[in-house]
Amino acid sequence: MQQRQSEALARGSGGPAEASHAAGAAGGERGAGQRRLRARLQAARAQNRLAVVASLPRNDVALARAALAAGAAAVKVHAGVRHAASGIAFGPLAAEAAAIGAIAAEARRHGALVGLVLGPGEVADPAAWAQAAQLGVDFLDGFAGDLPAQLLGQGSLEVMVALGPGTDLGLVRALDQLPGVAAVEAALVPPEGYGRRLTVADLAAYRALAAATAHPVVVPSERRIVAADLPLLAVAGVAAVMAGIVVFGEATAAAVAHAVSELVHAAGGPVVP
To answer: Which of 101, 105, 151, 189 could be disulfide-bonded to 193 (CB atoms 3.0-4.6 Å)?
Structure first.
């Protein structure tokens, strides 16, 4: 179950060693307890726009650079999971560290954030959390049923908690009473609905979730979200959309840049930190 949920989250270069060192330094400068993701999403709402997050189909600095140059507020990388839509298998964090460090360094140059999905072998490992923070990762993303409770108390990384289809709104409200949660990911579409157009039922589900929590709500591109959907998502109370391969169409820098640029324009422009 945990592996399947990690795969669901996955839908959506200068010298790597030098970049990893720079990202690690940036991670150290942040310090524990900083809430950059939450602050960025709150800034988006205050500016009456949606933030755009790019979920990279490969841990590739060229893809990250394309998304960031197009105005993405954050990029999301992966370790220890298989990308459900692209079929790409990501190695453990140690194997992906150089690429993630390079991406984090690129994100810092653009004033953007980096999120990480860890596979079932590492998501419960405090050593992996520490390594992620040192690489320059800002937040971890995972399903509520997969994330260990002590992750909410570690302080170095923010946590985006993903909620799946059929989530009880009582659970959503309860998240407001727990420490360490920066945002809620509304992964509410069952697998058979991936890639289809956004529906009225989807908007109502997102609205119900957003109304039940004080946390910013992030909608991943389980549906084939297009630019015209963003004003409606904003009305539904969504703070950010997270575009992945379903939106990009293909894992190329040109495709990522085009898709992110269209979404950022429709969202009202890049979020000003």
So the answer is: 189
35 burial level (CB within 10 Å; 0-12, 13-18, 19+) = middle
Which of 27-41, 85-99, 114-128, 227-241 has the least mean pLDDT? 27-41
Q: Which residues are CB-contacts of 184 (< 8 A; sequence separation ≥ 6)?
A: 160, 161, 162, 163, 172, 175, 209, 213, 215, 216, 217, 218
Which domain covers residue 38, as residue numbers? 2-266
CATH number of the domain enclosing 182: 3.20.20.70
| Spatial CA neighbour of 100 closest among 84, 123, 76, 80 | 76
Separation of first and last alpha carbons in the chain: 37
CA–CA distance, 56 with 242 (Å, rounded to integer):
10
**Eight-class DSSP state of 79:** E
Is residue 134 over pLDDT 70? yes
List pLDDT tens digits, range 69-83.
Answer: 999 999 999 999 987
Nearest to 190 by CA among 199, 182, 177: 199
Q: Give how many domains the chain has, as a whole number.
A: 1
Evaluate whether residue 90 is within a structural domain: yes
